[in-house]
UniProtKB/TrEMBL annotation:
Coiled coil: none annotated. NCBIfam families: CxxC_CxxC_SSSS. Residues 1-40 form the Putative regulatory protein FmdB zinc ribbon domain. It holds the Pfam family Zn_ribbon_8. InterPro entries: Regulatory_FmdB_Zinc_ribbon. The lineage of its organism: Bacteria, Pseudomonadati, Thermodesulfobacteriota, Desulfovibrionia, Desulfovibrionales. This is FmdB family transcriptional regulator.
Amino acid sequence: MPIFEYVCNSCDKEFEEVVLDGSDPACPACGSANTTKLMSRGVFRTGGPIVSGSPSASAITTRGQGGCRGCSGGSCSTCG
């Protein structure tokens, strides 16, 4: 089932919702129908567990370095 991420434009709450009919859901915090679907990064794995040092592990750890919003330093220790 597809799970989408949304943000409420009224109260700024972010939430996830299973949506089957393509409509935008109401905010669970305030009930507002003024919500926007967020662009989310797809995450999936195939195969078994990820082993440190494997190609799968390095692909996961090198993508999206700097997990802080707006961080361009490549390390969260450089964020404000």
